[in-house]
Amino acid sequence: MALTLRLSSSFVQLPTITTTFSHSHSVSRLGFHPLRLHLNTPKRLMIRAARTESKGVTLGFRAPQFQLPEPLTGKVWTLEDFEPHPALLVMFICNHCPFVKHLQKGIVNLTKFYKEKGLAVIAISSNSVATHPQDGPEFMAEEAKLLGYPFPYLYDESQDAARDFGAVCTPEFYLFKKDGRRPFELAYHGQFDDSRPNSNVPVTGRDLSLAIDQVLSGQPVSAQQKPSVGCSIKWHPGKKF
C-alpha cells in the first residue's frame, strides 16, 4: 500500500515496496536462497547520503577482545562467548543509516540461515547518541525486537570496539575463522553484495555468503574483496580515530 506524505505544501506519493524471493539468482553452495528486494523509487525521491568505504584491514588480523551490552536483554557479551564456533561474523550497523536499512531483511535472512550451519553472529552499533539519539540503546532494543534480529545487537558506547576493529562505516562486515584453539582470524572484510539504495540491483548477499561458505567448508577465501559502502560511523564530538 502506498503512503502519502506532505512535503513543502505539496503531496508526494511514496511507492509501494514489494518483497519477493528470487529463484533466478544463483544459490550459495550451502543452499542459501538470496532475498531479492524491489524498490521502485522515483529518481526525484532518491536517497542522498554521504558514502564511506570500509578501509583495508589486514587479512589474518585477530579479533579484538570486547565486552559489550545487549540493550534488548541486558546481557553483556565477550569474544569468549563465541569460542566454540568455527566462524564469527561481526557487523557494524546502526538504526538510521539508509545503507543499513536497505540490507536489513537480507541480513536477517542470511544470518538465520548460516547460524544453523554453525556461524556465530553479532552486530555492534558505535554511533554517538550525542549527535544521533535515534541510535541509542533504547531504540536499538526496539529495532532488534521489531526486525527479529537473530543475533545480539550490541552497544559500543565508548566507541572502543569500533576503534579496535578499525571500523569506519555502517554497514561493515568482518568474517573471522577459527582453527581449533587458535584465535579468530580475519578471513573476509568486504561488502554484503553490489546492491545499494536506489541502485535497482537486487539484494542477494552474494559476496558475503560466498565467503561464509568458503570459511565453513575449510576453503581459502579470495583476497580480492570489494569494500563495504555505507554511512560513516558518527564519532562523539571531538573524538575520532
TrEMBL record:
Residues 57-217 form the Thioredoxin domain. Pfam families: AhpC-TSA (PF00578). GO terms for molecular function: antioxidant activity; oxidoreductase activity. It comes from the Eukaryota. InterPro entries: AhpC/TSA, PRX-like1, Thioredoxin-like_sf, Thioredoxin_domain. This is Thioredoxin domain-containing protein. The lineage of its organism: Eukaryota, Viridiplantae, Streptophyta, Embryophyta, Tracheophyta.
